[in-house]
Amino acid sequence: MIGHDELRERAVALDAADPLAAYREQFVLEPDVLAYLDGNSLGRLPRRTQERLAEVLRHEWGGRLIRGWSEGWAELPVQVGDEIGALVGAAPGQCVVADSTSVCLAKALHAAVSLVPGRDRLVVSAVDFPTDRYLARRVARDRGLEVVEVQPTDSSGLTAQDVGALLDDHTAVVLLSHVDYRTGSLLDLAEVTAMVHAAGGVVVWDLCHSVGVVPTELDAAGVDLAAGCTYKYLNGGPGAQAFVYAAARHLPVLDQPLPGWWSAEDLFAMADELRPAVDARRLLSGTPSVLGLVAVREGVALAMKAGIDRARTKSELLTSFCIDVLDHLADSGVALEVVTPRDPDRRGSHVTVRLADARGVTDRLIERGVVPDFREPDLLRLGLAPLTTSFVELHDGLVVLGEVLAH
Amino acid sequence: MIGHDELRERAVALDAADPLAAYREQFVLEPDVLAYLDGNSLGRLPRRTQERLAEVLRHEWGGRLIRGWSEGWAELPVQVGDEIGALVGAAPGQCVVADSTSVCLAKALHAAVSLVPGRDRLVVSAVDFPTDRYLARRVARDRGLEVVEVQPTDSSGLTAQDVGALLDDHTAVVLLSHVDYRTGSLLDLAEVTAMVHAAGGVVVWDLCHSVGVVPTELDAAGVDLAAGCTYKYLNGGPGAQAFVYAAARHLPVLDQPLPGWWSAEDLFAMADELRPAVDARRLLSGTPSVLGLVAVREGVALAMKAGIDRARTKSELLTSFCIDVLDHLADSGVALEVVTPRDPDRRGSHVTVRLADARGVTDRLIERGVVPDFREPDLLRLGLAPLTTSFVELHDGLVVLGEVLAH
């Protein structure tokens, strides 16, 4: 029953009805890959990025050299930041693109702690991505706070209630991931932000697994700070720079722990005393990579053109179809457990299954041209990218998963 | 007398005798530029970087996607770090390439402070690059230290004696630039390091303006920590990632302030508790940019092939010839003052002149295809890159400078 005709027909029909189907042609598709199901780790290469980088090399670095800085490069961190801002509901001037996600999160966390003097607890998810927890502990240690780790009561991931139960008048900062990197579980960003504010704390959101696929209204929700990466659903390239957001109401006095000449109001003043910018440039430190920003910008442009609402609609259809096929496999006797929430409103854009030998299965899938993502010890993540994953690709990849598991 | 035949003949002869002359052909030369004299701000584009980035886009990101991380990308920060290590006298395992210069310096400074508990002064040059001073003040504030700024007694830049006069048993950390970003003055790294150690402190060297052009023996000198950028004489591209060095004797216990999953001994363990690497990977934080590292690597490869000793020899010839031509201009009645030390052993690879209207002169030079670098309020920097600057190019650019100043 694996690869059941009816499911494939549904996939074909879903592709035919998909208003974003043509976006796939804007990306390089790997000849040896049957199904790329890891868009939540590294998004595909936009064709335009290849062309644009070649142009920037030849005409800008190669042709203009240092003059490039006064001919547009210096504005890139803010321009691309504002473009990402448009995807996450942030008005201009509050986002910049620069540094790695870790460094952006560290800046946001230190800045957040300074906003709530006199409080002594930093709340973090016990199941968050390692870097988030390492940084939370480190910032807490440096700033004299105690870390409180929230354990999820539901195996699929944290709920707003889990977080709420730990908030009190000790709460300084709450660091949370919008989408759980393992299970794909989605928190209600507005609800949790309001809970943290009601307790008198400030919130830092990690948007790595939601930016580009989950509509996010940072300004409307009154979020304090956020950061996220651009190499997943924004297709910015391996290790592409991250973005960091700080609300306009905080920026004029924001205490940024890594000041450099790029944090200044006037970049070329090079003054003896730093006069920090009062907009998001305050969050910059050193010279940002131009090649990196050019690549991020092309990926972001595609996401903006597709539109976050259409991306979310397709993402829900992809994850729902994925769960239907996985259920079909389970009904056929294949041993797997879907750990991602079945309610589309409670999940991001990846679906995770628990398997006995997830590592071995991953290896065998890759041998057969199906690229998923393995997470210790027993999870297989299937990252579905609305701009590049087709329903037929997903279906065919899951058929191979069924065959591998059946053996 | 400007553009005196004899000087141009000398330039032609110096080019003819230059063992590195052929390297110039390995770089993209801008058609509208008569003389590029800003290699100390942004180095030229290696032709091979264009080819290599196109390959990596097409075959690695485009072709291998997430598999690239286990097929070589993950080793790049260490590999390129070790290659730069070879240029600065550091044995493998002590350098990594990642993050901006500012972030690398911040890591080095925080780590340095942790090495000297109980001491309360951070010494920094009063004339250093703004970021260095901003970061020194910030780290001092965060760690409860007092900043002591060293004023140079000589207008060309700090001397070892200036630094030595301020060292005592309060000295925790000394942050210094190997080459002064404005005047080009060079400190004796081994001598100053020994002085700091004799006082019981640790030293952090900023190698931005010396890496690739001044032989540096970090290990032999017993340097504690160092950082430097790759977009000047290493031709890594605009905003390319920096490198950071920590001595092997410090690394196993080094206190790195920005821990992330890339700091771990086992990158993919993603353990609940961070077990940091005991080599330079400990200095990494988040996912490094692959495109950035690929570009840096090509620039570094050219510097390694040329050899640091040959680069230094040519650099000294370039700066000496530059000063000779400037003296010739001054003798002809042009109002300029060379502020760079006249002793080749006391300077790096740029020559700085003080002018009445340095900004206006810079604009007029650029109009005529000569690209220097302006520094507030009255300095014109002439950055001479041994791999790409020819003596004739330098000569012809200075002739235009003479003409501009004569009007």
What's the shape of chain A? globular
Order of helices and strands of chain A: HEHHEHEHEHEHEHEEHHEEHEEEH
Numbering strands along the chain, what is their spatial order in the largest sheet of chain A? 2-8-7-6-5-3-4
Unreliable residue runs of chain A = none
User: CATH first level of the largest domain in chain A: which class?
Assistant: Alpha Beta
N→C terminal distance of chain A: 14 Å
What does this structure look like?
Two copies of one chain form a homodimer. With 407 residues, chain A is of the alpha/beta class. Chain A folds into two domains: 5-46 and 307-406, Alpha-Beta Complex (Aspartate Aminotransferase, domain 1); 72-306, Aspartate Aminotransferase, domain 2. The first copy, chain A, has helices at 5-17, 47-64, 76-87, 101-115, 130-143, 160-164, 189-198, 218-221, 290-306, 308-331, 358-367, 391-406; strands at residues 35-36, 95-97, 121-125, 146-150, 171-177, 202-206, 225-228, 243-246, 337-338, 350-354, 370-371, 373-375, 379-383. In chain A, strand 12 and strand 13 form a beta hairpin. Chain A is globular, with a radius of gyration of 22 Å. The first copy, chain A, starts with a helix and ends with a helix. Chains A and B meet through helix 2, helix 4, helix 5 and helix 9 of A and helix 2, helix 4, helix 5 and helix 9 of B.
